[in-house]
Write a structure and sequence with these properties.
By secondary structure, the chain is an alpha+beta fold. The protein has three domains: 122 residues, Copper amine oxidase-like, N-terminal domain (Copper Amine Oxidase, Chain A, domain 1); 72 residues, SH3 type barrels (Roll); 250 residues, Glycosidases (TIM Barrel, Alpha-Beta Barrel). The protein has 15 helices and 33 strands. The protein has an eight-stranded parallel barrel, surrounded by six helices. It is elongated and about 130 Å long.
Length: 596
């Protein structure tokens, strides 16, 4: 009996000991479950954090406005002035309309159409269109320090853009320059648009059932998210489960681009430059033309930039023009920036509206006075600083040429990275013809001897230019000259003066230009034999005299034929040549095989 009682007491104590342990275990499980729940809730529940509008749009001052351009948030800002959105002239040029020109020296904003020059002065609500004044209820151009701002409302008058200014919470302006059909989606239940594609990303804005969103892209790589733009200017991501019916919205520009008309000849142009260095040289036009065959156009070097105010020197001759016209040859007088290059600065002439307009007026006055058929622009000292002014000069000159029936042609280097700023694409719009100077592959200052115009180099120049300029406006120029290269071994003294870091060049290289017959005589005198070089498409010859090596890549009938054939191959507008007097008479028969 006593034993039984002891057993009961032990079992009772065991049950009493197990109860606390069970409670502890249950509590531990509950705590662990709570931790797991909290972890999972934190991991999988959407964040309620909101990004402030100022943070998202990065607007720090009251007159700043964020810019959304074609559904992309830009890193530049607009400025709100008197309730109107303005952008800088750099923004205007780079993103909206590069045909505007800002003259920072004379505080003028200019815009050209095919037939009119439009001018707005800083601080004035009046602007002029071809000298006719118009007034707006806002100021088109304002300046703050060194920065000029242009009203979007004014830009819209001459540009294919639409914009909407929103001022709730944060200033922002939505600008559209690309039109067409955009994909939309209707919100099917209330939700949020987030900064990134993920539920932990901050909320940008709420959307309600029935709202229309603009679909930008779907993010399949990060789940069921779609990039959208909201009607109030936010660009972010929304989960696909909030999106309902897809649709489309079509927008059209209210602006009609003006048509640039051009003069286009109904024949293949056969042109050549005539270098005229003094008035007496004009009298040689009779014999110069008499040696040609099939010449349609002559370009005498008559006009020279004289000073930084837009004045020119002239060698124009009415007798010369009359004689050419009697022989059915058009005269496109050339104007150049080379002769007085040491006393003029292209940037000074071309960047200032007053000097640029004076230059335009002087050229047009001469063209009318001498009954010229065209003007040929040959500015070879344009650099990146003067490039915008140069293109604006061509625009303004094209207006006056168009109004007076004068052909405008522009000489251009073969395209290369270092001359991209010549803006051939814009030239191809405003000018009647562009001429590739398809020579000077190797030139007077070259450090090594080589061809003036190898065939593949010429071909590449045409192909690169055709990427920007239509074939019917493109003329390719060929050389009537060649360069005789002289290679003289350096003296011991010259070699000693060279730096250890200089590339080793054993010879002093120089050259001189010769016409076709003149170089043949030199080769014959020195007993040099020429051989055909398939790579350059030219005859090559060399000889040694007085310890010097002479090399030449010839321009003659066969090499010119290869270049002339490119006119037909690429359906170009014509051919030109530098210069009359360097060719032999038979070369014209070669050219006429490819020029109708």
């Amino acid at each position: 009996m006593a034993t039984t009682k002891r057993k009961r007491r032990r079992r009772s104590r065991g049950r009493r000991n197990a109860a606390p342990m069970m409670a502890v275990l249950v509590l531990a499980v509950l705590i662990l479950a709570g931790i797991m729940f909290a972890f999972l809730y934190e991991k999988y529940s959407p964040s309620k954090e909101r990004m402030s509008w100022n943070t998202y749009f990065e607007v720090t001052t009251g007159d700043e406005a964020a810019v959304i351009l074609n559904d992309q948030m830009m890193d530049f800002k607009a400025k709100i002035i008197d309730g109107e959105p303005y952008v800088t002239t750099d923004t205007l040029y780079d993103y909206l309309n590069s045909r505007f020109y800002w003259d920072s020296q004379e505080n003028l904003l200019l815009y050209t159409t095919p037939t009119e020059l439009i001018t707005a002065s800083v601080g004035s609500n009046t602007y002029t269109v071809a000298k006719q004044s118009y007034t707006e209820d806002y100021t088109p151009v304002k300046v703050d320090g060194d920065t000029a701002y242009v009203a979007l409302k004014y830009i819209q008058k001459y540009t294919s853009i639409q914009y909407e200014l929103m001022t709730d919470e944060v200033n922002r302006v939505n600008i559209k320059t690309k039109f067409g059909t955009a994909e939309t989606a209707t919100v099917k239940k209330n939700g949020n648009v987030r900064y990134r594609a993920g539920i932990k990303s901050p909320i940008l804005t709420d959307v309600a059932k029935g709202d229309i969103l603009y679909v930008l892209e779907e993010k399949e790589d990060v789940g069921d998210w779609t990039k959208v733009r909201t009607s109030n200017g936010f660009i972010g991501y929304i989960r696909n489960k909030y999106l309902g019916q897809k649709g489309e919205e079509t927008t059209e520009s209210n602006y009609t681009e003006p048509e640039y008309t051009n003069i286009s000849k109904d024949y293949t142009i056969n042109m050549a430059w005539h270098q005229v260095t003094n008035a007496d040289a004009n009298s040689k036009v009779l014999e110069t033309i008499a040696n040609t065959k099939g010449l349609t156009t002559i370009s005498p070097t008559w006009f020279f930039l004289k000073d930084d105010d837009g004045n020119i020197d002239s060698l124009a001759s009415q007798t010369y023009v009359n004689y050419c016209h009697q022989n059915n040859i058009e005269v496109w007088a050339l104007v150049e920036d080379i002769t007085h290059k040491d006393s003029i600065t292209d940037k000074e002439i071309l960047s200032r509206t007053s000097s640029r307009q004076r230059l335009v007026s002087n050229l047009i006055a001469k063209a009318i006075e001498f009954d010229l058929d065209g003007i040929n622009i040959d500015f070879e000292y344009i650099n990146e600083e003067s490039a915008k002014g140069y293109v604006e000069f061509l625009r303004e000159l094209s207006i006056m040429c168009r109004l007076n029936g004068i052909i405008l042609s522009v000489d251009n280097y073969r395209p290369a990275g270092h001359n991209r700023f010549y803006n051939r694409a814009e030239q191809g719009v405003v000018a009647d013809y562009l001429i590739i100077m398809g020579y000077d592959e190797h030139y007077a200052g070259s450090e090594e001897a080589g061809s003036v115009a190898s065939i593949n180099w010429v071909r590449e120049g045409i192909e690169e230019t055709l990427k920007e300029v239509p074939a019917e406006k493109l003329i390719n120029a060929v050389p009537f000259y060649t360069r005789l290269w002289e290679e003289r071994p350096k003296t011991a003294e010259e070699l000693a003066q060279e730096s250890d870091t200089d590339d080793y060049v054993p010879n002093v290289v120089s050259s001189k230009a010769y016409g076709m017959d003149a170089i043949d005589k030199i080769l014959a005198t020195n007993g040099a034999e020429k051989s055909w070089d398939e790579t350059t498409g030219q005859y090559y010859a060399e000889y040694v005299s007085d310890g010097k090596t002479y090399k030449v890549w010839l321009e003659e009938e066969e090499s010119i034929a290869l270049k002339a054939a490119l006119i037909k191959e690429y359906n170009l507008a014509g051919i030109s040549a530098w210069k009359l007097g360097f060719e032999r008479q038979d070369i014209w028969d070669t050219i006429l095989k490819y020029v109708n």
